[in-house]
Specification:
The complex is a heterodimer of chains A (258) and B (308).
Chain A lengths: L4 H45 L2 H5 L3 H32 L2 H6 L5 H29 L5 H6 L1 H20 L5 H17 L11 H8 L2 H13 L8 H27 L2
Helix pairs in contact in A: 1-3, 1-5, 3-5, 3-7, 3-8, 3-10, 5-7, 5-11, 7-10, 7-11, 10-11
Chain B lengths: L5 E10 L2 E11 L4 E5 L6 H8 L7 E6 L4 H10 L1 E4 L11 H11 L4 H14 L15 H12 L6 E5 L7 H16 L3 E6 L2 H7 L2 E6 L2 E6 L1 H8 L3 E6 L5 H8 L5 E4 L4 E5 L2 H10 L6 E6 L2 H9 L6
Helix pairs in contact in B: 3-4, 3-5, 8-11
The chains are: A mainly alpha (258), B alpha/beta (308).
């Protein structure tokens, strides 16, 4: 039995990664450590001493860590679904090379998204381990937060792939990070509950996929109520995965099949 | 005669308002080296991309190895090799990994790919580069690697789009030699080029394309015999005097082409024409007598040079 062709694209991702993983080690291992140290421990001390943890009913580090896991999954997925896709379409044209083989656009898109999701899983597991090492959560709680992080990553991988497939050049990528990913990172409830925000931003935050990812990660990892019904969040993120994948297929086909 | 590998009838490709390929008919037979010669924008690459089952046909009939590209794209692509005009190698990876990954895209088992990589690296004269990254390789090496990559599935037909554009003469000759060997092994070659010497060297049969249409078809020799004289006398005049001189060479040859920088006189004996010219007292700055080439055929058929 031959494996589905999309798996060949996943294998490609893994082979490239075997060559280039050194570059991503720092972001995979060091970023969580740095963030948890600076924000969780450093800023957390101020928050906890200032009475913030009374509002949160948790030490700040514990509050922060699962949310940051979701945000990290988003960033990993957005990174892997943007620049490498642009390279495949335009800079190195490796997607064009792949399409000259029996592979089709569908295999390419599914394989690529599959690989990004695997990468997100890996990064999330590492993150969960570090979060546990910091004492933010127990090991089991940390692991419970991995599946929703993965779902968050998949939602962003699909949406960002679709977005990138339509871009003429890389200026659109810096726009994406500057006006999309960074604001999401800051205002989706990762660092503070979105109820702290002015009403209109709070409502906007409810609409972001990252908010739902954060809510799920936090709710599963910590013994606190979910910020919104978890099934609503799961359904919402799945809708992003489905719509993003559909658009990614459509836009990639339009871009690559001329 | 065996069934053609490629059969096109009124094949057309449009991009919006632009008609890139305009109702062309041609056939490519097993084992031959078939060329598409024409200037940039003539529709060669668009035609190739349709044959390679990566670009949908707008209208007309196209069969590749008896299959319909619209329905059987993956199967056609599985039996073809493609060498694109632009290198699309994975520069982060090694020579070996590029070939391995491509072989995997065809669904071949790793063991078989490894065997073939050994042979292909030898064929492409890249044995010593097996574990080098692709990025620092020379243009000629990269092009040979792309050809090796296109052969990983042992295709029945290899499609090469401008295979030697941008290469130095030495690299070109090496490449031509490799392509010639492939042809001897029975691989059908389809080549696009805007170099007439390349077409003459490599192609058994070719079509000349211009503005999306096929303007002539035949073997290089037959095309030259049919559309040009045996020889050509090229004249260069001092700057600014060409116009005045043109009037004085009229009627000297069977045909004259006036180019911006030179005048071409077509005759069966260029040296004799040069003699008559001297007798008339016309003294060009320089003269070259040569045989007619496909360039002359193209000029005759379209009124323009191949490379502008």
């Amino acid at each position: 039995m031959a494996a589905p062709p999309a798996l060949r694209v996943v294998e490609y991702g893994a082979r490239v990664y075997r060559r280039t993983w050194r570059g991503s080690v720092i972001s995979t291992f060091l970023n969580p450590v740095l963030y948890l140290l600076a924000m969780g421990v450093g800023l957390g001390k101020l928050v906890d001493e200032g009475g913030g943890s009374a509002d949160l009913a948790l030490p700040y580090l514990t509050f922060l860590a699962p949310g940051l896991l979701a945000a990290t999954a988003m960033q990993t997925a957005a990174g892997d679904a943007s620049y490498p896709v642009m390279a495949g379409i335009k800079w190195r044209k490796t997607f064009h090379a792949a399409l000259a083989t029996p592979l089709g656009v569908r295999d390419l898109v599914f394989g690529h998204l599959g690989w990004v999701t695997i990468r997100v899983t890996f990064v999330s597991v590492v993150y969960a381990a570090i979060m546990t090492a910091f004492g933010a959560t127990s090991p089991l709680e940390g692991l419970l937060a991995v599946p929703p992080a993965l779902l968050t990553g998949a939602a962003f991988a699909a949406a960002v792939t679709a977005y990138t497939a339509r871009l003429k050049d890389e200026t659109g990528l810096s726009t994406l990070f500057r006006f999309g990913i960074v604001p999401l990172f800051l205002f989706s409830g990762t660092f503070f509950p979105i109820t702290q925000l002015p009403d209109w931003i709070e409502w906007a935050a409810y609409g972001t996929p990252l908010f739902h990812g954060v809510s799920l990660c936090r709710g599963l990892a910590l013994e606190i109520p979910f910020e919104v019904d978890p099934w609503v969040s799961v359904a919402y993120l799945l809708a992003w995965v489905a719509a993003g994948t559909w658009l990614a297929l459509r836009f990639m086909r339009r871009r690559l099949v001329l | 005669m065996t069934a053609p590998l490629v059969e096109a009838r009124r094949l057309t490709k449009r991009f919006g308002d632009l008609t890139a390929v305009d109702e062309v008919d041609f056939e490519v037979h097993p084992g031959e080296a078939f060329g598409f010669l024409g200037p940039n924008g003539a529709g060669k690459s668009s035609t190739m991309r349709m044959i390679a089952a990566v670009s949908p046909v707008t209208s007309g009939h196209l069969r590749v190895m008896g299959l319909d590209p619209a329905a059987d794209g993956p199967e056609i692509r599985g039996r073809l090799g493609v060498v694109p005009q632009e290198e699309n190698l994975d520069e982060e990876l090694s020579v070996y990994e590029n070939l391995l990954i491509y072989g995997r895209y065809f669904g071949l088992p790793k063991k078989l790919i490894d065997e073939r990589i050994g042979e292909l690296l030898h064929f492409a004269q890249l044995q010593e580069r097996r574990h080098s990254k692709v990025e620092p390789l020379s243009g000629g090496m990269k092009r040979r690697l792309v050809i090796a990559r296109g052969l990983i599935n042992q295709p029945e037909m290899l499609i090469l789009d401008e295979p030697t554009t941008g290469l130095d003469p030495q690299a070109r000759h090496l490449l031509w030699d490799r392509l010639y060997r492939l042809k001897q092994q029975g691989v059908t070659l389809i080549i696009t080029t805007h170099y007439m010497d390349e077409a003459e060297q490599l192609c058994d049969r070719l079509v000349i394309m211009d503005k999306g249409r096929i303007v002539a078809e035949g073997s290089p020799r037959a095309l030259i015999e049919q559309h040009s004289t045996r020889e050509v006398l090229e004249l260069r005049f001092p700057v600014g005097t060409q116009e005045e001189m043109v009037a004085r060479v009229e009627g000297l040859a069977q045909r004259a082409e006036i180019l911006p920088d030179r005048v071409l006189l077509y005759s069966d004996d260029a040296d004799e024409t040069a003699g008559v010219l001297a007798a008339r007292g016309v003294v060009p700055e320089s003269t070259v007598s040569r045989r007619s080439t496909l360039e002359d055929v193209f000029l005759r058929l379209t009124g323009r040079s191949l490379i502008e």
